[in-house]
Every structure is written in C-alpha cells, then in structure tokens.
Amino acid sequence: MCLRLGAALGGAALAQQPATPVNEQQVHEVAAQLRCVVCQNLSVADSPSEMAQQMRAIVRERLAAGERPEQVVQYFVDRYGEWILLSPRGRGFNLLVWLFPAVAVAVGLAIVAVVLRRWTRRRRAAPPAAAVDAGMSERIRRELDGGA
Amino acid sequence: MIPELGSGTTVVALVLALGGAAAAAAGGRAGRSALVEVAQRAALGVFVLVSFAFALLTYAFLAFDFSVRYVANNTNLGTPFYYRITGVWGALEGSIILWSWMLALYTLVIVLRHRRNAREFYPWVLAVMLGVLAFFLVVMTFAAPPFERQTPPPADGRGLNPLLEDTGMITHPVALYLGFTGLTVPFAFALAALVAARVGDTWITLTRRWTIVAWYFLSLGLLIGGWWSYHVLGWGGYWAWDPVENAAFMPWLAATAFLHSVMIQERRRMLKLWNISLIIMAFTLTLFGTFLTRSGVIASVHAFTQGTIGILFLSFLALVLLVALGLVALRWDALRAQGELDSVVSRESVFLLNNVMLVAAAFTVFFGTVFPLLSEAVRGVKVSVGAPFFNQVNIPLFLSLIFLMGVGPLIAWRRASVESLRRNFLWPIACGVLAAAVGFVMGVRPALAVLTVATTAFVAATIVVDFTRATRARRRTGEALLPAMGGLLLRHNRRYGGFVVHLGILVIAVGVTGSQAWSVQTETTLRRGEHAELAGYRVRFDGLSASEESNHAKVTGTFTVSNGRVLGVLRPAKKFYPQQQSPIAAVDYRLGLTEDVYLVLGDFARDGTEATIKLQVNRLVSWIWLGGVVITLGTLLAILPERKRPA
Amino acid sequence: MTRLWRWLIPLSAIPLLALLAYGFRTNPRDIPSPLVGRPAPAFALTTFAGAPLALETHRGRVVVVNFWASWCYPACYEEAPVLERGWRAYRDRGVVVIGVDIQDRREAAEKFIRDFGLTFPNAQDPTGKVSVDYGVYGVPETFFIDRRGRIRAKHVGAVTDEVFRANVERLLAEPEGPPGPA
Q1: CB distance B325–C10 less than 8 Å?
Q2: Res C182: pLDDT
C-alpha cells in the first residue's frame, strides 16, 4: 500500500500531517479501538465526522512522535474514561461480559448432553418399533445411490 | 381538519381493537362463536380505520399540510416528492402507525385464512393479535400521536432528516417491520395453543409459512439496513453492532433457531416446551427492540426519542413476558415431552446444537447490549461494548453454525449409520481441506479466514453432493437432466428451498470474511492534480464544485479512478442542510464483484485547491448483497404450495 | 418439578425488567469525567482578536473554560448570555471566562461572538487537540478550574446562572494555597 502524503496546509480546519510517514495501518488499528465520541457506536477509524478526523490526526501525531499504540490508547482513556474504549477491558467486573458467551455455550452444550442422554436411554428402554429389515434398507439405499 | 379526523379515527380504532380482543377472548373461553364473529368484524373495522389514518397522513405529507405537527417536523417545501411519501414513517409517530397498519394487515390475513381451518386456536389468536394492536394504538393515541395539530401552522416545515433521503427508506423499515410484526403471528398461535391446552404440533404446522415469511422479511430488513449503512453513512461498513442493530438481530437469531427446531416437533413430536419458549423469546426480543429504539435507555444512532413512551413499552414488555411465561408455567405438565432417540449421531442432535449456538449468540448479543447499563448500575462506571467485542465473541459461534449447516441436512433422523456418514461427508470434508490448502497457498493468512474458507467449501460441497445424488436417482427413471433437477426442486421444495437459503448464507459469510479480512483503507490530503494510491488503484483529485439543491447546498469533489487504465470518475460530496449542525457525507463508490472502491470526501479548502479523502478498497462486499438475492430465491422456493401429485 | 417451582419461570423475568427500568434514571449521553480533581491540561491558543491565550497566565484566578460551537443550537445560544453576565459580574473578583470554539468555521464563530456581544477571550481550537485533552465529547461543555489549576467541576450542557454562580462562589471561597502540581 503506497501512501502519498499531502504537503503542509493552510486554510480552514485541514488536518495536520506529520513530517515523518507513519504506518497508516497502525493508525487504523489504534483508532479502531476508540469510540468516536460524537457519533453513536462507530470507531474513530470508521467515523467520517470531523471530530473523528481530528482524533485520528492526534493518533497519527503521537505515533509519529514515538509513542507506542498502548500509550496512545491510554492517553484517551485518561481523558474520557473507560467509555472511550469500544471493547471493555477484560478486567474485574468486565470479565462478566467476556466470559458470558463461553459460559452460555457451555451451559447449552451441557443441557443438550443431558437431554440426548435421556432421549437415547428412553429409546433403549422401550422396545424398538417395527424394526425394518436391515438387509432391505441396505438394498434400498444402494439402489438410490446408483449401481446395482 | 386532518388532525381532528386522524385523531378521531385512531381513537375509534383503539376502541374497536380493545373490544374485539375482549370479545375474542370471551368467545374463546365460553365457546360462543357469535362473540368470535363480533371480534372478527372488529378486526376488519380496525384494518379499514388504520388504513384510512395511514392514507390520511400520507396525504397530509404530499399536500404540505403543516397544520399537522408531525408533517411540519419531518418535511419542508423543498422535500422531493418521493421522500414525502417515505418520510411518513421517518420518525417516531409515523413508525408506530406503520407498525400498527402492518399488524392490522396480518390480522386481516389471519381472519381470511384461518377462520375455518384453526377452530380451537382462532379466537385466541385473534385476541392476541388485537391485543397487541390495541397496545400500539394506545401508544399512537397517548404517547406518540401523529395527528397533533400545530398552531399556528408554520409557513415551512423543518424537513426530513437528510440521512433518510435515500431509497433505503422505502425498503428498510418496511421489510424490517414486516418481519417484526410477522413474528406476532406465530407468537399469537403459541399463546393460543397454551390457553387452549393444545400444545401438540397443530399450531406449528399452521404457522410454518408465517414463520418463514416473518424470518425472511427480518433477514431482508437487516441486509437492506447493511446496504443503507454502507452506501449512505459514509464509513464504509455495513454493520456496527449498534444497540438497535442488535435489537433487530436478536429476534432474527431466535427466529432462525425456532425455524429449525420446529422441524423436530413436526417430525418427532419432541421439544414442545422449547419451541414455545423460542417463539416467546423471539417476540419479546422484538418488543425489547422497539423499547430500545424509543426509550433512549441505551444510546444509539437509531434512537428516536426519550420520554414516557419508554415506560409504556417497558410495561407492555413486562406484561407480555409475565403472561406468556405464566401460561408456560400453567401448562408445564402438558409440555413435558417424552422424547426418544436411537443415537446421538442424528439430525436431532445437530438441530439441538444449532439451537445452542443461535441462542447463545442471541444471549451474548443481548448481554453485551445491556452490559453498559449493568456496569453503571453496579459499578457506577460507564463502559462501551462495541464492534470489536461482538466480532470477537460471535465469530466462533457463527463459524460453528456454518459447519452445522453442512452437517444437518445430510445426516439422518433418529440415527445415522457410519456407512451413511462416510457416504455423505467424505467428499465434502476432502473439499474443505483442499480449499483450506489452496487458500493458504494463495496467500490467505489469518487463521480464521482459512477456517472460514474450509468450512464454506465443506458446506457447499454437502449441498452439491446431495443435489447430484438425488438428481442422478431421478434420472435413473429415464428423465432428462434439467427436468430432473427442476422436478426435484419443486417436489421437495421445502428441502431445496432450505438448501438455497443455506447457500445464500454461505455467500454472505464469504462476503463478510472477505470484507473484514482483506479490505484496506487510507486517509490523505490531496492538492488538485495529486493522486493517492491504494491496492493498485490510483485516485486523482480533479477539483471541487458547489451546487444548490432543493433543500441543501452541496460541495462535490471530482476524482478520477484508474488502475492502469481509467476506470471512471467518482463524485463524493458533502451536503449542507440548514437544519443540520454538521454536513452529511455522500460517498461515491465503484462496486465490483470482488472489490469496491469507496471514496469519502472529508475536509476541503474553501478555494477548492485541497481536499482530504478517505479511500477504501473493500473486498467481496458485493457478495453480501448477492447472498440476499439467493436467500430470496430460496425462501420463495420453500414457501411454494406442496405438490400433491407423485414424483 | 413440584407445582410451585414452575412459577419461578415468569418470576425470573423480573430482575431483567428492573434493570431496564433502572435505565430510565440514567442518561447514556452523560459520561463522568476522569479529569475532575486533576490538574487542568495546559493550552496555548490565539484569540479571534489575535492575542495569545494560555491557561498558565491565569494561575491564581478561578478559570471557567467553556467549549462551544456556532452550530450548537439551542444549548450554546442559551448559555452565551449566561457566560457573558457571569464574566462581567466576576471579572473583578479574580475570575476569568475563556471560550474555546471547536469544529467550527471562523466566520460563523465570529458572527456568534458579535451577535451575543461576548467580551471574554475566545479562541478557536483548529486541530481539536485542546478539546481531546479535556475529554470533550460534545458541546457545550464547561470546566470550572480552581486557583491552583485543578479541574473541580465539569458541566455538560448549557450553563445556567445558578450553576455558574454556585461553582464560581465555591471556588472563590477557597484559600489560594501553594500552586498545584505541574
């Protein structure tokens, strides 16, 4: 991906571009973790709003100045609180929301296991209804599949 | 005159609906068909009245009748004709009247279709439908009246929300609401079955097509919403896990689970309790969705408003939940099944697993959506739960579902022998592994993408294997190829309709994977004549132009796109509406089967010499919309009337 | 399942409904600021009149920093007279009101200032850095900074005379004390 940088700008409210090229992918990755504060539920990376553009510029600048991605993210968290993170940090109370899916699936699978056991046990207890002759069903199957 | 006429009609409709519901319930309880007839006539009357009110409101929009406050707030003299029609349901009050009208329409169809063939259920179904309709009419009368008079009538209105000036406006809410309201029908039948203590599979057979139709419209609504988001909102994405998007997705998940597990009850008479619970879940999630959209409890891009209407919806949600679950508790004994199964390796098990995944996904999305509220209640700290979270936790669930989609149709009911497993799945598994290897060799690196490729190939192969084998069997009777295929599709339209829908889901899955894993984007500022390059495309900034439209000012950028040779010109714009605080981005794009070039205009210099653009090359997004077309075809096939003559 | 246990099923819906009802008491758009109690971030801007405007020069005074925009209707339009009144009433008592205009066009902002006759210093924040530094997520937002340079209160939405007076009086009543941490 080749990035062509614009020159330094005058005029009203155009984003400042840093002097050294920054990996746009990195900017995108950091910005994707942050919530755009003026739109609902979009990330700073995705949002077309002016505020998001300014925030992306700040991210770009900080990365160009040598900050690590986690530091840039923390900069925003220090000012906006945890709310600015689009994905809750997996610590403390927030673990609830992260563990919930796995727990839900585990509980579901456990219930299915119990139910299946009960169903198959009941089947074995009751005598099977008019058992179809195994030989006959095999012949039918083979005929349907083709080949004598 | 219109405000009073409309309000009067609404009140009369409300009275009729309440009376009808009561009459139907009383008639059902006492077994008096005369009362049920009264309810039936009330239902017809309500339909006529609500249709009239709807038409009246539309007329007010078309005629610029600003004496109606809703019209004044949502349109102005510059609003184009087309958007004056779709603007009718562009805000809260109109959405309620649209919802009510659809409920009335469905009730009418129920009256026409089921008054003879569902004797025990009919009174209660009617009671529930009219009861729900009455609730929405209550909202329309007291909380969100569309026919309030504006005094004095202003000279010009405020205008429609510019984001709604799009063709998506005619299809997205309509499809989505048809899906939501459509779920009321199986729900009504389920409650009727509980009340009448006829919890066997009659109510399931009666509602089979209703469920498919409602499910289809929900799917369509979701896909159109994604399309709208992609081509209007200017962020290059189609799904943001916004709380209200989730609110439409959860009923879809529950409805999909319901659609599948009723097949078990139809064939094997098992899972009665589970099926009733699923449809109750689907319907209450629908109500939860309307509650979310209108109560302002959770911030969302869709949120219409806050206020007392939220309390109304929450109360109704509570009422429905408590009554439905109370009925389940009441009929508990009848619902306990005597299920039987020969082997764990069987279609029943696969369907159960399918349900586990879908319901777990629904619960996950639900918990994630309300978690900010929970965190604030418990910890006093506000957190956000957004796309990164939902994507991460849902992907394993959906991948498992896709895998099950391949296994389910080919595995036998009751017990699948090792022989049949080998016969059915050897080739597909080989295909899956082969596809994964090919993908890896071709440079597909994220493990998840490789896995998706493998699973998708596996499922596609199962469909092909089944279809070829069945066609070959038919041809053995001497039929030519095409008639054999056609005859197969028509004779077993349920099965093959389902296959086609599964194929559509596969296509969508490929589209989603491609767009998430392989899309690239960049943001840059260009001077006139300069170009940006991305993924082999070169975008040159040619200039800006300003224009005046009927209700907004527009600044359009001209950009030439080439990839070796000139492909075309893109004209993304920024639209400045007087009543909006910030401009609306109008994106421009080149759609392709494998790639979309997507351009958003950001800031620009006043004199047109410079512009900031966001350029994206999105991969495989068109497959998502194509998948929607395939799903449509599959659904049409599945709901065809059953062929009675022998193959 | 005994006869009574089954009624737990409908009852289990109640905690969920309670949680949703709790939602009515909260405002999802009202985010508490982690900056309250911490030193106010420094800024150096240029006013519309061309004069330099820096936070440090006002150390020792109570500072009211207001973020606004000309398109923010109706809230900014309601509070502009409130701020001007507060400025005129308290400027001789060691209070300074500073307006920071964000995401706005210069002509529209200057018109806003002219229309409301604002005499307190106003500057534009063209890159948005100051607004992000202060954790601003919408307009209007107002920060009350004490004499030692710490943010003591944040008000989201239009400021009223009572809010202005209450916060300023409270901070004026405090002794100056040593300067806060840099």
Answers
A1: yes
A2: 46
